[in-house]
């Protein structure tokens, strides 16, 4: 199956704003068969976030000594 056949259009993807919290995006990505979101600002594409990006960030945060110091 090709990538284009799995996603019909950009309308099928979540479109958060740059300031939206990741915690709000996670459920949308989990529901999306594409596992990616187009970050839009004023209707203009400014980035792409994937479920892999979120996994890397959460892994880094959970293992980061800087993160642990902030939460203690």
Automatic annotation (TrEMBL):
Cross-referenced Pfam families: CBS
Keywords assigned: CBS domain
SMART domains: CBS (SM00116)
PROSITE patterns to which the protein is assigned, alphabetical: CBS
Gene3D superfamilies: CBS-domain
InterPro entries the record matches: CBS_dom, CBS_dom_sf
Protein name as catalogued: CBS domain-containing protein
Chain ranges of the CBS domain: 7-65
Disordered: annotated segments: 1-23
Keyword Cell inner membrane set for record: no
Taxon lineage: Bacteria, Bacillati, Actinomycetota, Actinomycetes, Kitasatosporales
